[in-house]
Each structure stands twice: as C-alpha cells, then as structure tokens.
Write a structure and sequence with these properties.
2 domains; single chain; 242 residues; globular; six-stranded parallel beta sheet; alpha/beta; Rossmann fold
Length: 242
C-alpha cells in the first residue's frame, strides 16, 4: 500500500505539555477534596482524553459524577490550560516537528491531528505556533466519547478525510500514526494503522516492543525508509493476489 496520510498525536508529540496537564488534573482533585497519588497520572491519563482520565480518577475514589458536572470539570481544566499557556514565553513545541512537517508537505502527504485533547486546546497551540495550515483536519477529544486506546478516533480521522477530499479513498493501511504513549499506539494498531513510537514519554525499548518503528526524536524519523516499506508491502500484496 502507498503511504497517503500521517496522523499526529498532540500532547507528547507536537507539544511537550504533560507536566501542565498533570498539574491541572491534580488541582481538580484538590478542588474535589481529593488527593492525587504519585505515578497515578502516568498510569491513568497518559494518551487518554480528559474525560476518560477524570472519570477513572473519580471512580477510583468512589465518586460518581453526572454528565453535566463532568462537562464543567473538563471546561474548568481547559480554561486553566489556556491560562497556563499564556504564562509561557515560548510554546514547548518538540524539536524537529517543523522539519518533519516540511518533509511531509514536500512528499505531498496529507496530515491530521488525532488526539484526546480538546479541540480548543489543539487549535490554540497550532494557531499560536503557526502550524495550523499544515493539517487537513483535527479529531479531538470532544468529537467522540471513546478514548484511546480504543481505535475510534483514528477510524474517524480516516472517515473524515474521505468525506473532505472527494476521490481520496483513504484506507487505514495507507496511514502512519505518530504516537508517544502505549494507549495511542494500541489505538492506532487496533484501527489497522502502522505506528511510529517517539520516545518522548517512555523509553525507546518500551515503545520498540509495541510500535512498528521507534525513534528517540522526531528528527530521527526517516520518511523515505518508511515510504519504501509501505511500497514493499503493497508489492507483496499484489504478488500474493496474482
């Protein structure tokens, strides 16, 4: 199959902001008269949407919240996130991202963001970093209730590409996902999408067991090599059909 689209995770791939999210989740628990536990954020929240993260943290503490109250908590965190970003002199965009985007554009590959983050957060960062024009679409955490590691967000991205671009006829097997968490890698693979794991959040050796390709940094991603592998797979499938 030919590589036609590259799907980026957001937190941990585009922007290095997990420390901000961990701080804000801890603040929500404090405001609910609850206490965060060491290591729990990484275990429960990395790679997942705010909705999934908050629900599980509250459930573990015997709390059940209504849908409307959960929406309020998520909105409160989103507002606090914008305030935190406003305090920064420079957004912590990962090194190598712009160079990779340039290579993808030069190769005429389509790009999307597929994330559990809220659309308002993704758009805020992409606009401030002047990256928004590079992405054909965004699938965000408020587009659907299912969170990674479920494959729904990736499948929705493929569906929206085909709705948006007549004749594109994109298949999951023609996509490449770029992820940094176990949940994200699992979601992409369940959707039938090959994955590059970037060791921004977990060590290289831990991602290597799960992803199709693993790199320490975005700058280490060899696009030509990835395209070659996709082309070889397409040739092998063609031969098998003959």
């Amino acid at each position: 199959m030919t590589l036609k689209a590259v799907l980026f995770d957001f937190n941990g791939i585009i922007i290095n902001d997990e420390a901000i999210h961990e701080k804000l989740i801890a603040q929500i628990l404090i405001e609910e008269n609850l206490r965060s536990k060491p290591g729990e954020y990484r275990q429960v929240c990395l790679g997942r949407s705010d909705r999934a993260c908050i629900v599980e943290l509250l459930t573990r503490r015997g709390r059940v919240v209504t849908e409307s109250y959960l929406t309020q908590l998520i909105a409160r965190k989103a507002q606090a996130y914008q305030i935190e970003l406003g305090k920064l002199e420079k957004l912590p965009i990962y090194p190598g991202l712009e160079d990779l985007i340039y290579k993808l554009r030069s190769a005429k590959l389509r790009m999307a963001v597929v994330s559990g983050a809220l659309r308002s957060e993704v758009e805020l960062v992409l606009n401030k970093a002047k990256l928004a024009q590079n992405f054909d679409l965004i699938v965000a955490g408020d587009d659907l209730k299912a969170s990674k590691p479920e494959p729904d967000s990736y499948l929705l991205a493929v569906e929206r590409f085909n709705q948006q671009i007549p004749g594109f006829n994109l298949e999951p097997s023609q996509c490449l996902a770029i992820e940094d968490t176990f949940a994200g890698i699992t979601a992409a693979k369940l959707a039938g999408i090959q994955v590059v794991g970037v060791a921004n959040t977990y060590p290289f050796h831990m991602l290597q067991r799960r992803a199709h390709w693993t790199v320490d940094y975005l700058t280490h991603l060899e696009l030509e090599r990835v395209q070659e592998v996709f082309s070889q797979q397409e040739l092998q499938e063609t031969v098998a059909e003959c």
